[in-house]
């Protein structure tokens, strides 16, 4: 049997939990469950006795606050793909053994870094800087021994060439991951890989078949499996150059139609669709203007052309707002590059047999309106955290992913409880809140009204409640935002949410 190849194994402990929870450990006590059985659990859960293989009820009996999440193998693979691409940038030819475990042939990278230990340390540094400090590296003969070396106590374990059998000898037979064979070997008195490897190969084959013979070879350090790198990502980037440069947005948009079609053709050949794209505009001075674009479903050629035009229009509008001494003389666009950033399997975006017609028509209708009104002409709302209504409403152009900077699930003392106003004024509208004598009502330092409200913008006040103080960033030298809120119902049965800052009243929202 030929000598096994030297292999670098990169193991990311508790990867399914990393994919489900995001971010590096430590994590709160959490378990991933499939078929009512614990598949993986965090280190904080293991401290309380939770173990993989336990029934869900048993695990929750160890710690009542255990968070239970469903295990999703597809999510594990999606989350590991960027990590695999990062490894490939520094060690070409990476092979995916399973999510959370990758292998690379050691010969090339060890020669580049001057040794196997140096190569392992370099990979640990690169992955640590990228946000994966928990990675463990094992270097040995064959993927099996390299994986077990990566599970050692040190960040990088190197098993010298030809010493795989000595390294494996004290390990229990359970590491072969064949429960039936391991139980039988233990009953026969064979408890370690060294004892299993000492058995006669012919006897093992006769008793356990080809499967047993294969595991017997692994126990002896004879791993002949090849490290097969995953196929390279398809080249999806397309670009077009203009000579002479084009200055008009419509001219450039018309000229990139064929390039957009070429991008869609490349995506179709790879059986993927694009959900995020980056468009690079290079002017005649060599300046590069890049911007990522998102899509609620997937891009088509017309969508790409629209994004190019919108980006050019935004670039011209931004340049026009600058002072004369800061504005650049814009000669024209010399190159347009379309770079698909995020792709997805095309099968996930095929229309269903039933129930997909309405959503598809709605998407096309909104997209056409956005094409006519511009990128920011159609927006969608997302709920954010905050105390003021304007802060809780995040408006995002149609097709882009909302970026919520404040978690709405966190407590926000002073925020308005449900039900919230149906209409939010951005910016707030000035409004008059008057006392019986016609004077504007004031709020003193103790939060008391100078008089009961009787009129609001010329209408009689039927009922009111408040005031409720809001004072943000008390430690700020500028004082932050502060005011007092009132809820008022006028004689037309309209409910208003108003607030006072200084000596003025503003309408923050209106209930329907």
UniProtKB/TrEMBL annotation:
Family annotation (InterPro entries): DNA/RNA_pol_sf (IPR043502), SulA_CellDiv_inhibitor (IPR050356), UmuC (IPR001126)
GO biological processes: DNA repair
Keywords, comma-separated and alphabetical: DNA damage
Statement: the UniProt record of this protein carries the keyword DNA damage: yes
CDD domains assigned: PolY_like (cd03468)
Signal peptide as annotated in the record: none
This protein's record includes keyword DNA damage: yes
Top-level division of the source organism's lineage: Bacteria
Domain UmuC intervals: 29-150
Name of the protein described by the UniProt record: Protein ImuB
Organism annotation: Microbacterium hydrocarbonoxydans
Lineage, uppermost ranks: Bacteria, Bacillati, Actinomycetota, Actinomycetes, Micrococcales
